[in-house]
Design brief:
The structure holds 3 protein chains of 3 kinds. Chain B is an alpha/beta fold. Helix content of chain B is about 30%, strand content about 25%. In chain B, strand 10 and strand 11 (about 195-205) form a beta hairpin. In chain B, helix 1 runs parallel beside helix 5 (about 155-170) and helix 2 (about 60-80) packs across helix 8 (about 335-345). Chain C is mostly beta strands. Chain C has a single domain (about 10-90), classed as Roll (Ubiquitin-like (UB roll)). In chain C, strands 2, 3, 4, 5, 6, 7 and 8 form a 7-stranded mixed beta sheet that branches. Classes of the chains: A alpha/beta, B alpha/beta, C mainly beta. The interface of A and C includes residues 49 and 141 of A.
Chain lengths: ~475, ~375, ~100
């Protein structure tokens, strides 16, 4: 398939679905590429299949069910859709290479919209590589896509809306965590109050706050032990998890368990935009790198737009509006509408997106991750693939290594199958800390294609014209 | 405060010379750029390759052989000083031929080198012989040239070890510096980097592609240009290939590096699908079973090429004490750079064997 | 360690290290194996340490298994299929 499209959209979460839907409805030639077998991204994962399981839908809640509307409208739009497609290269000239069914294909586009979403912030703790440690998002995926829940006592540890949502969904589904370890820092609770007025002033903000309060209230009602201000987490076990030790306030605890779910927020997925050469900047409020974008989602590379959480964490509803904004801009770029028309058409989505972001500052401050998670102790593994500990990174910095690319060359950190996705953020933080400079100055791994593993045979058989 | 020696360029050439000099008791500073720089040292295939080096320049053939012989000492010194295993293996090397024409031209090349620089045991292998040595070869491999002293090492670990070993010998590693200017006088140099000043009695320019602009500051000429090469790297695989080969090798960790390309694209370090396809196809022809292996990384780097591809070693006549050192085989020549060239530089004079490597050879007008 | 909310028996038969397992439509290989009670799916090529899926979304690559003779395939990105033969990934995969 060597095809030319008006727009290629990568990622079938809310931003990608909304963008592709709008473009197709406006008769643009658009194709949506996604690696999963069905639409929804992560937040609405399995939404179409879940429609056949009403009790599961009820447990997952109305915010998840909303995704069915997006999915249905996408299906009705007539947009071309290629599931099971792993995009492994996007060039600045907007050639998109993807692997599907064992062979690689090339499509070209006048505009590319990257809607590749977010990933969980890595949570490097002692013992985090043991079998039985998963992210909260991973457990949520198992619930959404297959109706699978833990069948024995398990512990949820971390901080952030997704963690509390998972617990709420589990309670509704009849799966009770043995304990919730809340790592939200006490100091954050006070600091976040300053941003409460901004959230309260907006209707969507009030709704989000109310949801959060209900989640906390539900957790309290459930009687599940909730430890607060948790720190010094150590996950125990030799070949698999056997327990979790931690401090809550000033008290040491230990719980026996074989399953631990970790969560410390989500951060933009960086690989694809970085590989194209999009400019990134450190977002101090969200403690992560985010691409530099204008109001429409244009990146620093002409014709490459980024929408949704990949452009900065804003949540599913904000992502949907960002997808539509990028689509309007793409239509302008294609010459279908002029800038004035674009601005007029986009008014509602711009306002709605702002509204959905009203609660953001409050959440960012409240759930800001602790130092120990961002910059773990020397003995903690930071590169899971190559099994490299934080101390090794600090060592090479002491020997003159200024940045992550030299560190990668010297340690093999970032050279494993995950291609630096999990260790990238932590390695940058460790170097910044060791050098006493900011994350922007340290920089990040140089990300190159292939963005996902491609076989030698598939590369050999590519038609490159 | 002045140094005995400043080396400009913290890559494999500069790193080897700096460490070699430091072990002889010189006070050494190694100036290096930042995390993102052209850094040919981080784009090296990793061969310690002798068999085809120096056709038309016997001095280079001999220099390469010297380095190959010195390499085990270098590897041992690195391990001893830093605990880093640079994974030197010298099991012999193969250059596969995929056609009768390639066999013929390879045979002619070896014959020429044998006549010019002597016999090091390199020989041609026919179809059956090469298959007896290397299981899994594809039908298109008609033969190979084999040299028993060829080998490979981990170029990144070598760089890491050289830097660490330099520190062990009280050398200074000064990264994040870009040289703006050099104030030169015989046996006295001031290197200016922004507001900083570094002084020394001896100066080595080993700045890769940056050498071109620095060399004239000290009366030297290093007319190097970039030549891009791309490499595909697989996931870790169970060991199946011990030998070094000229475009495919399996590292100590098990990943397989597939090369290569020679592209005249200026200073562009982007990778390209057409070259990836070309490299993949060629290597699948050599090892068909590789078609199922996954590529997890592709990178491109700029080789530092002199006009004839051979190294430049030269002392400045105008400013004695300043030396030019550049090559595109920083791994192969690391042994010689650290253990033979560095002492010569410290002694203040390059012996006669280095005369053919002077840049004056480029002044001879071509017929 | 895991259980299904829906008691409907599964219908997709596959094997893990030769032992028959049952999965449901929509399961990735990773979910199917976790739901079947497998504590870990691979041993790393670096140290031989056992690993199980961590992220379930194609980011961590800790869920690598051998599927139908091809090693290092991410189980969380691969839908389970009838007759699939899945094997534990023990260290580096072999191609030759």
């Amino acid at each position: 398939m060597n095809e030319a499209w008006d727009v290629v959209v990568v990622g079938a979460g809310p931003a990608g679905l909304a963008a592709a839907t709008l473009l197709a409805e406006q008769q643009a030639r658009v194709v949506l590429l996604d690696e999963q077998p069905a639409v929804g991204g992560q937040i609405y994962r399995g939404i179409e299949r879940a429609a056949e399981h009403p009790s599961l839908l009820t447990a997952l809640g109305p915010d998840y069910v909303y995704g069915a509307t997006l999915a249905a409208r996408f299906r009705a739009s007539g947009a071309a859709y290629r599931p099971g497609s792993l995009v492994w290269q996007v060039t600045p000239g907007r050639e998109v290479w993807f692997s599907a069914d064992g062979s690689s294909h090339l499509v070209r586009a006048d505009a590319v919209i990257l809607a590749t979403g977010a990933m969980e912030r890595p949570v490097p703790l002692p013992g985090w590589t043991l079998p039985g440690v998963m992210t909260a998002g991973a457990l949520q995926i198992m619930l959404k896509s297959s109706g699978v829940v833990p069948g024995e006592p398990f512990v949820v540890a971390g901080s952030g809306p997704l963690l509390f949502l998972l617990v709420q969904q589990y309670l509704a589904a009849g799966a009770r965590p043995a304990a919730v370890l809340d790592t939200t820092a006490r100091a954050n609770e006070w600091r976040a109050l300053r941003h409460l007025p901004e959230a309260v002033a907006d209707r969507a903000g009030r709704r989000d706050l109310a949801k959060g309060l209900m989640m906390v209230a539900g957790l309290r009602r459930s009687g599940i032990p909730r430890y607060r201000h948790v720190s010094d987490i150590r996950i125990e076990g030799a070949d698999a998890v056997t327990g979790i030790a931690f401090r809550s306030g000033t008290t040491q605890h230990r719980l026996a368990t074989r399953l631990v779910a970790l969560h410390e927020g989500v951060i933009p997925a960086q690989q694809m935009p970085r590989s194209i050469g999009c400019a990134f900047a450190w977002d101090a409020a969200q403690q992560c790198f985010a691409p530099v974008l204008d109001a429409w989602g244009n990146s620093s590379v002409d014709g490459v737009m980024i929408a949704g959480d990949a452009g900065g964490i804003g949540g599913a509803r904000a992502a949907e509006h960002a997808g539509r904004l990028a689509a309007f801009e793409a239509l302008r770029r294609l010459g279908r509408i002029d800038a004035a028309r674009r601005d007029a058409l986009a008014t509602d989505d711009r306002r709605a997106r702002q509204s959905q972001l009203a609660v953001r500052r409050f959440l960012d401050v409240l759930y800001a991750p602790r130092d120990a998670v961002l910059r773990p102790a020397d003995d903690v593994v930071v590169c899971r693939c190559e099994e490299i500990a934080a101390g090794a990174v600090r060592d090479v910095v002491r020997q003159g290594c200024l940045g992550p690319n030299q560190a990668k060359a010297f340690l093999r950190a970032g050279m494993g199958p995950c291609q630096g996705r999990l260790c990238g953020p932590v390695v940058t933080e460790l170097i910044a800390q060791a050098r006493g400079v900011g994350q922007d100055e340290v920089g990040y791994y140089r990300i190159r294609s292939p963005l996902k593993p491609v076989t030698v045979g598939e590369l050999a058989a590519m038609e490159t014209e | 405060m002045g140094y005995d020696l400043i080396v400009i360029g913290g890559g494999l050439v500069g790193g080897a010379i700096a460490w070699g000099a430091a072990t002889k008791g010189a006070s050494v500073a190694l100036l290096d750029q930042g995390d993102i720089a052209y850094r040919a040292a981080r784009g090296n295939f990793g061969l310690v390759w002798v068999q085809s080096k120096g056709a038309g320049m016997p001095a280079y053939a001999h220099w390469t052989r010297t380095s190959s012989e010195l390499w085990p000492d270098l590897a041992g010194a690195m391990a001893g000083a830093t605990g880093v295993d640079v994974a030197l293996r010298q099991p012999g090397g193969l250059a596969f031929c995929l056609s009768d024409e390639e066999m013929a031209s390879r045979t002619a090349l070896l014959h020429r080198m044998h006549n010019e620089s002597g016999d090091i045991g390199t020989r041609m292998l026919g179809r059956d012989e090469v298959r007896a040595m290397v299981p899994g070869l594809g039908d298109r491999v008609v033969g190979a040239s084999f040299c028993p002293i060829d080998g490979h090492a981990n170029p990144l670990y070598l760089l890491r070890a050289l830097h660490a070993a330099l520190l062990q010998h009280d050398g200074a590693y000064l990264p994040g510096r870009t040289v703006d200017a050099i104030d030169a006088a015989p046996h006295s140099f001031t290197v200016r980097c922004g507001a900083e000043r570094f002084t020394c009695e001896k100066l080595v320019i080993a700045a890769g592609l940056g050498s071109r602009d620095l060399a004239p500051m000290v009366g030297l000429s290093m007319p190097v240009t970039p030549l891009r090469g791309q490499i595909l790297v697989t996931e870790r695989l169970r060991p199946f290939l011990d030998y070094a080969t000229h475009v495919i090798r399996q590292t100590a960790e098990g990943s397989v590096m597939l090369g290569d390309s020679q592209e005249d694209v200026g200073f562009d370090t982007a990778t390209s699908a057409t070259v990836m396809q070309d490299i993949a196809a060629r290597n699948v022809a050599v090892f068909p079973a590789l078609k199922d292996a996954s590529i997890v990384r592709v990178w491109a780097a700029l080789r530092v090429m002199s006009p004839d591809g051979f190294p430049i070693y030269e002392q400045s006549a105008q400013y004695p004490g300043a030396f030019a050192t550049t090559c595109h085989s920083g791994v192969t020549l690391a042994g010689a750079h650290a253990l033979a060239l560095a002492p010569a530089i410290l002694a203040g004079e390059l012996p006669e064997r280095f005369a053919p490597f002077s840049s004056r050879r480029f002044d001879v007008p071509s017929a | 360690m895991f259980r299904r909310l829906d008691a409907t028996p599964g219908e997709i038969r596959f094997t893990f290290d030769g032992t028959e397992q049952i999965a449901r439509p929509g399961d990735s290989v990773a979910v199917a194996l976790l739901a079947a009670g497998e504590p870990s799916l691979r041993d790393t090529p670096v140290s031989g340490a056992p690993r199980a899926p961590y992220c379930m979304m194609g980011v961590c690559f800790d869920c690598l298994v051998e599927i139908d003779g091809v090693g290092n395939r991410p189980a969380c990105l691969t839908p389970v299929a009838e007759g699939m033969q899945v094997r534990r990934q023990r260290g580096a995969r072999g191609v030759l």
